[in-house]
Amino acid sequence: MSLSRDQIAQRVAQELRDGYYVNLGIGIPTLVASYVPDDIQVMLQSENGLLGMGPYPTKENVDADMINAGKETVTAITGASIFSSAESFAMIRGGHVDLTVLGAFEVDQNGSIASYMIPGKLVKGMGGAMDLVAGAQNIIVTMTHADKRGNSKLLESCSLPLTGVNCINKVVTDLAVMSIKDGAFHLEERAPGVSVQEIIEKTAGKLLIPDQVPEMEL
Amino acid sequence: MAGFNKVVKSYQEAMAGLEDGMTVIAGGFGLCGIPEGLIAQIKRLQTTNLTFVSNNCGVDDFGLGILLKDKQIKKMISSYVGENAEFERQYLAGELEVELTPQGTLAEKMRAGGAGIPAFYTATGYGTPVAEGKEVKQFNGRQYILEESITGDFAIVRAWKADTMGNLIFRDTAMNFNPMAATAGKITVVEVEQILEPGELNPTEIHTPGIYVDRIIQASFEKRIERLTLAKQ
What ipTM describes this predicted complex? Predict the structure, then answer.
């Protein structure tokens, strides 16, 4: 069985470590916040200018001046700080954020990512995604392994305009966990009940498979 | 003698000198921290052919979106513009120029512009459509592109508190692009919730020193929320 959006988020949450500063993108990455293990502390960075993002507010606590990068109303946790967008991207570009999780249309075997623009469709903009992929040391992409027609999104070379080159280390899809290094996808784990064969069929880029491919533990 | 008193009494005074074809840098992220009253005044002035530098372009009936209806905006320099149907129509019809700029690069372009730095190298956008036509240089084995800074004829800004001398404090994430915008305008106009006397703000806590600010106007804000999200009860 392929993973649900929440299960993908749950698997990504296993990559969190105590004391990490983490930036979560819009979509599946946002869900990761719900699965932070109880025995660790992480600080969420929101690139409009908030470090220490908390949960959504109650009706009584809604404040139009407190939003996240997805323009949703949020709260700040104890120990949070608020700063300008220039400061925010200084910490991103300067490599101070420990982990970035974001979505993508395509990723290739060299770690390049396409996530903001489909030619012929209206371009809405890259927001902070280009800065995040250029600045972070440790980036995980979450996405479905293939599109609705079954075409692989894990390619030899991205076909869409790039958001960043040679920058993605890890991909967590609805079928597998893969690391990217030395010009290839390395299969690390498969979703419970998903065969290695299915992953091979849905991965267009170069794929290296170890003798044993454990199932994810969720 | 006006000295350092920068308070103006009317929106006419606040935006006096704005002319067709000028570049305006605006603070705000989405609808958060936008100078609502100054945008409304630009609509009343019916100034046209404006270039706006702003992370977003509002929604159809609020924020910079209200300037689209009467085609006051010729060009937008933004990182994300997907919240606005009229914007989409004008862009697809070729009536509106758009220069998409990564969010961090946009913030830094304003910051550098206000700080007298004409250009800077960044890894952001290298190898992407953003890098087209830009100089590439290698530092420590990594490729960077040269990005030019931005200044404006006007900067329009929202702050929480100001003293009459133009020292500013922003509130929560309504800060966003406002501090950089404030530094990058030839004329910087600030709308504030609260104007205080000099000495009422602690000098240690001031976000933007008054030297960057030319005009201050007292305002009340609608503070519209773009995406109301609540905790599950």
Answer: 0.96
